[in-house]
Specification:
By secondary structure, the protein is mainly α. The chain has one domain (about 1-195, about 235-270). About 60% of the residues lie in helices and about 5% in strands. The chain is built from 12 helices and 4 strands. The chain has helices spanning about 1-5, 30, 35-40, 40-65, 100-125, 140-150, 165-180, 185-195, 200-215, 220-230, 245-265, 275-295; strands at about 75, 85-90, 130, 160. A two-stranded antiparallel sheet has the order 1-2. Helix 5 crosses helix 6 (about 140-150). The chain is globular, with a radius of gyration of 22 Å. The protein binds zinc ion (ZN). Zinc ion binds near residues 55, 59, 108 and 187.
Amino acid sequence: MQHEFNAGRDPMMLADSDSDTELSPYPILWAFSSLSHLALGVPFAATLLLILFCHEMGHYLYCRHYRIAATPPFFIPFPSMIGTVGAFIKIRAPIETRRKLFDIGIGGPIAGFIPALVFAFVGLALSQPLPLGVEPVLGLPLVFEAVNALLGHGWMPQGLLLHPVALAAWAGMLATSLNLLPVGQLDGGHILFALFPRWHRYVSLLTIAGLVLMAWYFYMGWILWAVLLGFMGTKHPYVEPWPKPSPRRYLLGGVALLLLALSLMPSPVKGVTLPQVWQGVRPTLHEWKMDALHKLGLK
Ligand SMILES: [Zn+2]
Protein backbone atom coordinates (compact mmCIF):
# COMPACT_ATOMS: atom_id res chain seq x y z
CA MET A 1 0.00 0.00 0.00
CA GLN A 2 2.69 2.42 1.06
CA HIS A 3 4.71 1.16 -1.86
CA GLU A 4 1.95 2.09 -4.27
CA PHE A 5 1.71 5.49 -2.68
CA ASN A 6 5.48 5.92 -2.75
CA ALA A 7 5.46 5.00 -6.40
CA GLY A 8 3.60 8.24 -6.94
CA ARG A 9 0.21 6.68 -7.32
CA ASP A 10 -2.46 8.88 -5.84
CA PRO A 11 -5.89 7.19 -5.90
CA MET A 12 -7.57 10.56 -6.57
CA MET A 13 -5.34 11.35 -9.48
CA LEU A 14 -4.58 8.15 -11.33
CA ALA A 15 -6.18 7.50 -14.64
CA ASP A 16 -7.60 4.11 -15.50
CA SER A 17 -4.96 4.00 -18.22
CA ASP A 18 -2.30 3.76 -15.46
CA SER A 19 -0.51 6.79 -16.79
CA ASP A 20 0.95 9.25 -14.30
CA THR A 21 0.09 12.35 -16.24
CA GLU A 22 -3.49 11.62 -17.25
CA LEU A 23 -5.65 12.36 -14.24
CA SER A 24 -9.02 10.96 -13.34
CA PRO A 25 -11.09 11.59 -10.22
CA TYR A 26 -12.79 8.19 -10.73
CA PRO A 27 -10.01 5.60 -11.18
CA ILE A 28 -12.50 2.74 -10.77
CA LEU A 29 -10.80 0.20 -13.06
CA TRP A 30 -7.46 0.95 -11.46
CA ALA A 31 -8.90 0.57 -7.92
CA PHE A 32 -10.37 -2.85 -8.65
CA SER A 33 -7.35 -4.11 -10.58
CA SER A 34 -5.57 -5.27 -7.42
CA LEU A 35 -6.31 -5.73 -3.72
CA SER A 36 -3.43 -3.44 -2.76
CA HIS A 37 -5.01 -0.65 -4.80
CA LEU A 38 -8.35 -1.21 -3.09
CA ALA A 39 -6.65 -1.31 0.33
CA LEU A 40 -5.55 2.30 -0.18
CA GLY A 41 -9.20 3.20 0.34
CA VAL A 42 -9.24 1.86 3.91
CA PRO A 43 -7.18 4.59 5.63
CA PHE A 44 -9.11 7.18 3.59
CA ALA A 45 -12.57 5.83 4.44
CA ALA A 46 -11.75 5.14 8.12
CA THR A 47 -10.33 8.64 8.62
CA LEU A 48 -13.22 10.39 6.86
CA LEU A 49 -15.90 8.37 8.67
CA LEU A 50 -14.25 9.13 12.01
CA ILE A 51 -14.19 12.89 11.26
CA LEU A 52 -17.86 12.87 10.17
CA PHE A 53 -18.78 10.76 13.22
CA CYS A 54 -17.10 13.23 15.60
CA HIS A 55 -18.91 16.14 13.91
CA GLU A 56 -22.32 14.53 14.36
CA MET A 57 -21.54 13.40 17.91
CA GLY A 58 -20.80 17.05 18.75
CA HIS A 59 -24.43 17.87 17.87
CA TYR A 60 -25.80 14.67 19.38
CA LEU A 61 -24.09 14.96 22.78
CA TYR A 62 -25.32 18.55 23.20
CA CYS A 63 -28.86 17.34 22.38
CA ARG A 64 -28.48 14.66 25.06
CA HIS A 65 -27.08 17.23 27.48
CA TYR A 66 -30.15 19.45 27.00
CA ARG A 67 -32.54 16.45 26.92
CA ILE A 68 -33.69 17.21 23.38
CA ALA A 69 -34.77 14.07 21.48
CA ALA A 70 -32.39 13.29 18.58
CA THR A 71 -31.34 10.23 16.57
CA PRO A 72 -27.74 8.96 16.66
CA PRO A 73 -25.70 9.76 13.51
CA PHE A 74 -26.68 8.29 10.12
CA PHE A 75 -24.17 8.05 7.28
CA ILE A 76 -25.31 8.48 3.68
CA PRO A 77 -23.30 6.50 1.10
CA PHE A 78 -23.19 8.16 -2.32
CA PRO A 79 -21.18 7.59 -5.52
CA SER A 80 -19.51 11.00 -5.18
CA MET A 81 -15.76 11.60 -5.34
CA ILE A 82 -15.52 10.86 -1.59
CA GLY A 83 -18.11 8.04 -1.44
CA THR A 84 -20.57 9.88 0.81
CA VAL A 85 -22.62 13.04 1.02
CA GLY A 86 -21.94 13.12 4.75
CA ALA A 87 -23.80 12.19 7.90
CA PHE A 88 -26.63 13.71 9.88
CA ILE A 89 -28.65 13.42 13.05
CA LYS A 90 -32.36 14.16 13.17
CA ILE A 91 -33.48 16.44 15.99
CA ARG A 92 -37.04 15.45 16.87
CA ALA A 93 -38.03 18.27 19.23
CA PRO A 94 -37.95 22.06 19.03
CA ILE A 95 -34.91 23.83 20.48
CA GLU A 96 -36.37 26.37 22.91
CA THR A 97 -33.57 28.80 23.71
CA ARG A 98 -30.91 30.66 21.74
CA ARG A 99 -28.25 29.32 24.13
CA LYS A 100 -29.19 25.69 23.41
CA LEU A 101 -29.45 26.39 19.66
CA PHE A 102 -25.96 27.92 19.68
CA ASP A 103 -24.38 25.05 21.61
CA ILE A 104 -25.98 22.33 19.46
CA GLY A 105 -25.07 24.25 16.27
CA ILE A 106 -21.42 24.88 17.06
CA GLY A 107 -20.79 21.54 18.82
CA GLY A 108 -20.60 19.66 15.49
CA PRO A 109 -18.16 21.85 13.54
CA ILE A 110 -15.75 22.13 16.50
CA ALA A 111 -15.91 18.38 17.25
CA GLY A 112 -15.24 17.62 13.56
CA PHE A 113 -12.53 20.24 12.99
CA ILE A 114 -10.26 18.95 15.77
CA PRO A 115 -9.80 15.38 14.39
CA ALA A 116 -9.61 16.80 10.84
CA LEU A 117 -6.73 19.02 12.00
CA VAL A 118 -4.94 16.10 13.70
CA PHE A 119 -5.31 13.96 10.56
CA ALA A 120 -4.14 16.89 8.43
CA PHE A 121 -0.87 16.85 10.39
CA VAL A 122 -0.50 13.05 10.04
CA GLY A 123 -1.57 12.94 6.39
CA LEU A 124 0.49 15.92 5.22
CA ALA A 125 3.57 14.57 7.05
CA LEU A 126 3.13 11.39 4.94
CA SER A 127 2.44 13.29 1.69
CA GLN A 128 5.08 13.99 -0.93
CA PRO A 129 5.75 16.56 -3.63
CA LEU A 130 3.94 15.85 -6.89
CA PRO A 131 6.00 14.30 -9.70
CA LEU A 132 7.38 16.94 -12.05
CA GLY A 133 4.99 18.02 -14.74
CA VAL A 134 1.86 16.92 -12.84
CA GLU A 135 -0.39 19.80 -11.88
CA PRO A 136 -2.32 19.62 -8.59
CA VAL A 137 -6.04 19.01 -9.12
CA LEU A 138 -7.24 19.92 -5.63
CA GLY A 139 -7.12 23.30 -3.94
CA LEU A 140 -6.04 23.29 -0.31
CA PRO A 141 -7.70 25.12 2.60
CA LEU A 142 -5.75 27.77 4.52
CA VAL A 143 -5.35 25.40 7.48
CA PHE A 144 -3.49 22.90 5.22
CA GLU A 145 -1.10 25.64 4.13
CA ALA A 146 -0.47 26.48 7.80
CA VAL A 147 0.12 22.81 8.68
CA ASN A 148 2.46 22.47 5.67
CA ALA A 149 4.44 25.49 6.87
CA LEU A 150 4.66 24.03 10.40
CA LEU A 151 5.84 20.70 8.96
CA GLY A 152 8.58 22.54 7.08
CA HIS A 153 7.09 21.75 3.67
CA GLY A 154 6.89 25.45 2.84
CA TRP A 155 4.09 26.65 0.58
CA MET A 156 4.60 23.82 -1.92
CA PRO A 157 4.59 25.70 -5.21
CA GLN A 158 4.62 22.41 -7.14
CA GLY A 159 1.78 20.90 -5.07
CA LEU A 160 1.50 17.75 -3.00
CA LEU A 161 0.69 14.14 -3.74
CA LEU A 162 -1.80 13.76 -0.89
CA HIS A 163 -1.61 10.65 1.28
CA PRO A 164 -5.07 9.00 1.64
CA VAL A 165 -5.24 10.23 5.28
CA ALA A 166 -4.53 13.81 4.12
CA LEU A 167 -7.19 13.39 1.43
CA ALA A 168 -9.73 12.35 4.08
CA ALA A 169 -8.75 15.35 6.24
CA TRP A 170 -9.21 17.51 3.11
CA ALA A 171 -12.75 16.10 2.66
CA GLY A 172 -13.38 16.64 6.39
CA MET A 173 -12.35 20.29 6.07
CA LEU A 174 -14.61 20.67 3.02
CA ALA A 175 -17.55 19.22 5.01
CA THR A 176 -16.77 21.55 7.93
CA SER A 177 -16.75 24.63 5.70
CA LEU A 178 -19.96 23.67 3.88
CA ASN A 179 -21.71 23.23 7.23
CA LEU A 180 -20.37 26.47 8.68
CA LEU A 181 -21.75 28.68 5.88
CA PRO A 182 -24.13 31.13 7.59
CA VAL A 183 -27.24 30.10 5.65
CA GLY A 184 -30.71 28.81 6.59
CA GLN A 185 -30.56 25.77 8.81
CA LEU A 186 -26.96 24.73 8.23
CA ASP A 187 -24.81 24.67 11.38
CA GLY A 188 -23.58 28.17 10.49
CA GLY A 189 -27.21 29.25 10.04
CA HIS A 190 -28.09 28.00 13.55
CA ILE A 191 -25.08 29.80 15.03
CA LEU A 192 -25.99 33.01 13.21
CA PHE A 193 -29.66 32.80 14.26
CA ALA A 194 -28.71 32.15 17.89
CA LEU A 195 -26.42 35.20 18.00
CA PHE A 196 -28.11 37.66 15.60
CA PRO A 197 -31.65 36.45 14.76
CA ARG A 198 -32.58 39.67 12.94
CA TRP A 199 -29.59 39.42 10.57
CA HIS A 200 -30.16 35.77 9.76
CA ARG A 201 -32.24 36.21 6.61
CA TYR A 202 -30.07 38.94 5.07
CA VAL A 203 -26.76 37.18 5.79
CA SER A 204 -28.23 33.93 4.37
CA LEU A 205 -29.21 35.66 1.12
CA LEU A 206 -25.85 37.45 0.88
CA THR A 207 -23.99 34.16 1.40
CA ILE A 208 -25.99 32.46 -1.38
CA ALA A 209 -25.15 35.40 -3.69
CA GLY A 210 -21.50 35.01 -2.64
CA LEU A 211 -21.61 31.33 -3.66
CA VAL A 212 -22.82 32.30 -7.16
CA LEU A 213 -19.85 34.70 -7.45
CA MET A 214 -17.52 31.92 -6.26
CA ALA A 215 -18.93 29.63 -8.99
CA TRP A 216 -17.98 32.28 -11.54
CA TYR A 217 -14.49 33.03 -10.27
CA PHE A 218 -13.31 29.87 -8.46
CA TYR A 219 -15.28 26.61 -8.83
CA MET A 220 -18.44 25.80 -10.75
CA GLY A 221 -19.73 23.33 -8.12
CA TRP A 222 -20.69 26.23 -5.84
CA ILE A 223 -23.65 26.92 -8.10
CA LEU A 224 -25.17 23.56 -7.10
CA TRP A 225 -24.74 24.39 -3.42
CA ALA A 226 -26.28 27.84 -4.00
CA VAL A 227 -29.33 26.34 -5.80
CA LEU A 228 -29.76 23.65 -3.12
CA LEU A 229 -29.57 26.21 -0.31
CA GLY A 230 -31.96 28.49 -2.23
CA PHE A 231 -34.49 25.64 -2.41
CA MET A 232 -34.01 24.75 1.26
CA GLY A 233 -34.85 28.36 2.05
CA THR A 234 -33.41 30.96 4.35
CA LYS A 235 -36.09 30.62 7.05
CA HIS A 236 -35.25 29.46 10.55
CA PRO A 237 -37.70 27.96 13.09
CA TYR A 238 -38.80 30.32 15.87
CA VAL A 239 -36.68 30.41 19.02
CA GLU A 240 -37.54 32.52 22.10
CA PRO A 241 -35.61 35.81 21.74
CA TRP A 242 -34.82 36.01 25.47
CA PRO A 243 -32.50 35.32 27.20
CA LYS A 244 -29.66 36.34 24.88
CA PRO A 245 -26.66 33.99 24.64
CA SER A 246 -23.78 34.80 27.03
CA PRO A 247 -20.86 37.05 25.87
CA ARG A 248 -18.65 33.92 25.89
CA ARG A 249 -20.87 32.44 23.18
CA TYR A 250 -20.53 35.59 21.06
CA LEU A 251 -16.74 35.11 21.31
CA LEU A 252 -17.15 31.47 20.29
CA GLY A 253 -19.16 32.72 17.30
CA GLY A 254 -15.95 34.46 16.26
CA VAL A 255 -14.15 31.11 16.55
CA ALA A 256 -16.78 29.58 14.22
CA LEU A 257 -16.01 32.33 11.70
CA LEU A 258 -12.28 31.62 12.04
CA LEU A 259 -12.86 27.87 11.46
CA LEU A 260 -14.87 28.75 8.34
CA ALA A 261 -12.00 30.91 7.05
CA LEU A 262 -9.46 28.15 7.80
CA SER A 263 -11.43 25.33 6.16
CA LEU A 264 -13.13 27.07 3.19
CA MET A 265 -11.63 26.29 -0.21
CA PRO A 266 -12.79 28.73 -2.89
CA SER A 267 -11.46 26.25 -5.52
CA PRO A 268 -11.70 22.73 -4.06
CA VAL A 269 -11.08 21.49 -7.62
CA LYS A 270 -8.86 23.69 -9.77
CA GLY A 271 -9.59 25.01 -13.23
CA VAL A 272 -13.38 24.42 -13.24
CA THR A 273 -14.92 27.90 -13.15
CA LEU A 274 -18.21 28.67 -14.93
CA PRO A 275 -16.51 30.72 -17.72
CA GLN A 276 -13.91 27.96 -18.25
CA VAL A 277 -16.60 25.28 -18.56
CA TRP A 278 -18.58 27.55 -20.90
CA GLN A 279 -15.49 28.04 -23.08
CA GLY A 280 -15.06 24.25 -23.11
CA VAL A 281 -18.60 23.38 -24.21
CA ARG A 282 -19.16 26.33 -26.57
CA PRO A 283 -17.47 24.78 -29.64
CA THR A 284 -19.50 21.56 -29.19
CA LEU A 285 -22.76 23.52 -28.84
CA HIS A 286 -21.85 25.53 -31.95
CA GLU A 287 -21.15 22.30 -33.84
CA TRP A 288 -24.52 20.85 -32.80
CA LYS A 289 -26.28 24.03 -33.88
CA MET A 290 -24.59 24.06 -37.31
CA ASP A 291 -25.32 20.35 -37.68
CA ALA A 292 -29.00 20.86 -36.87
CA LEU A 293 -29.27 23.82 -39.26
CA HIS A 294 -27.57 21.78 -41.97
CA LYS A 295 -29.97 18.84 -41.48
CA LEU A 296 -32.95 21.18 -41.63
CA GLY A 297 -31.58 22.48 -44.91
CA LEU A 298 -31.19 26.00 -43.53
CA LYS A 299 -27.43 26.22 -44.07
ZN1 LIG B 1 -23.29 19.73 11.59
